[in-house]
Amino acid sequence: PIQGEKYQFQTEVSRLMSIVINSLYKTPEIFLRELISNGSDALDKIRFRSLTDPAALGSNPDLKVTIAVHKDQRIVTITDTGVGMTKEDLQKNLGTIAKSGTSEFLETMSGDKADMDLIGKFGVGFYSVFLVADKVRVTSKNNDDDQYIWESTAVDDFTIAKDPAGNTLGRGTQIAIHLKEDQDQYLDDKRLQQLVTKYSEFINFPIYIRRTKTKTVEPEATKESENKDSDDSEEAVVEEAKDEESKDKSAPVTVTYEEDDLMNSNKPIWIRDPKTITQTEYDEFYPVLAREPGASPMAYSHFRAEGEVEFRSIMYVPKEAPKDLFQRLDNTHANVKLYVKRVFITDDSKEFLPRWLSFLKVVVDAEDAPLNVSRETVQSNKSIKSISKHLIKKFFDLLKQLSQDEKKYAAFIKEYGTSLKLGVLEDGANMRKIARFIRYHSSHSDDYTSLEAYVSRMKKGQKHIFFFTGSSVDEIKQSPFVESLLARGYEVLYMHDTVDEIVLTHLANFEGKPFQNVAKSDLKLGDEEENKESEKELEEKFLPLLDWIKATLLNDIDKVRVSKRLTTSPAALVASDFGWTANMERLMEGQAKA
Ligand code: ADP
Ligand code: MG
């Protein structure tokens, strides 16, 4: 340990530390997110200062964060070239809680599980480092002071001393994390890379991981590579030449060198003005967001929301529906990624979008932590509801825009028609709105039709929207019921999706026009007054036949009637008003088997 002045942590800090340690022991990995965020904040500060004082950047204009592993010492260092901290800053910032609100929040914490989870997701700050560290040393150099060291083992005190090594950092802060016995995973640079990609890939400043690499070079080339490297490395240094015993000057030698690999080359395009972003940029960002290399979007909406919560968002409709879309519905759907100021917070919240919209891929970046340590749960839920409302509204805007071009919209319906129908079943509040965007096959043409278009073509006096269910359009077209309606000039919707019938039951009507299954016996066409008389006559005439059919099919049917619904087919089986239609029976049978 360093020799220096000893300080006690403020009581609130000790309290916060124990809460952090107790609530986050399952996800210690977030320490990296917190430390990189602090580095990024410090870089923001110095950049901002340099706007009015260009000299502030001094001899260290390179703004970046570098992570390095020292395996033998079991230390990970995170170094930034940010604003740095003076001795006083170290004492204040890493020993007290400056933020108003946090203390009050701590007061209200009752050890409630929900509060704990909440803290875990949002900025928990510097002290999370003690999830993985048994000792931490912060070395910092601010323009206004010499370089100082802050060191602590987290118990209740910390030490500050002037760095005997001098002002080696130039400017900025280095956090040296001495890992606990059981936290060796963070010595693995692949693991660190994975975490940077997960939490910090959209940080505005470059984040590097320093890696030790080896390569084989010809002896003649060795000298040259000290100055100018042969591959794309910027900072390669020949540290040592192995094979030194080999006296053969012409044999290749293996050299070890260090190289900083850039971890975050993806740019957070959502923070830019949509007018400056090209279609290609939107297309290329999609696979990054969806973590699906090579995938492309069908459509997107890029917007900024103000009000209760200020956030930016890009919402994508994938070109193809996820294969497991409907299996996934029961579980979580990680389709909304929440960031706060470019830092990833969570993608496992089901609160942002209803299940039927789980095919969307959305990034939400809030300017202010909508859920913050200093706020309460109720307010957080309000923020989430407000974000959710905005997202749903924007989805409908996008749908409207997509549906302007019916040809293109057909591609959307092919992939997501069933999702919309699920929306009718599950989202009572939006059911009527969704119904406008559903498309069906119909006898009108081979193209899809909307219910609105069907209604606009209804015959004079027609009161119902006629539909028939079956397993395919071809099967439906064969139906004698359909044939009869078509012969009379009515349009029939062809329903061949298993959920169709339930959806229509839910809707009951569209613009006040009730749905009518043409397979039901109470079918009213609106023109039947015509010959009630002749109907009676016919019934008398065919009475012997009716009696005979009834006697023959006694166990299978309910009633036999003379009907005018058929044109060329001699007879048809109809479902009674209260009975199941053939399609419904198929559905129930399928469920019984499953
Ligand atoms: P927050 O970042 O929300 O303020 P933290 O606990 O993460 O809370 O950090 C506490 C304070 O310590 C920061 O506000 C900042 O003043 C200071 N700090 C932490 N890390 C750094 C750093 N790398 N460079 C400069 N200042 C830092
Ligand atoms: Mg912080």
TrEMBL record:
Where is this chain compositionally biased, Basic and acidic residues type?
216-230
Single GO MF descriptor = unfolded protein binding
Tell me the ranges covered by the Histidine kinase/HSP90-like ATPase domain, including all copies: 27-183
Record's protein name = Histidine kinase/HSP90-like ATPase domain-containing protein
Q: Where is the composition biased (Acidic residues)?
A: 231-243
What does the entry list as the binding residues for ATP? Answer: 34, 38, 80, 85, 93, 99-101, 173, 375
The UniProt entry's sequence similarity note says: Belongs to the heat shock protein 90 family.
Full-protein residues shown here are: 50 to 643 of 826
| Region named Disordered | 216-253
Q: In which domain of life is the source organism classified? A: Eukaryota
**What keywords appear on the UniProt entry?**
ATP-binding, Chaperone, Nucleotide-binding, Signal
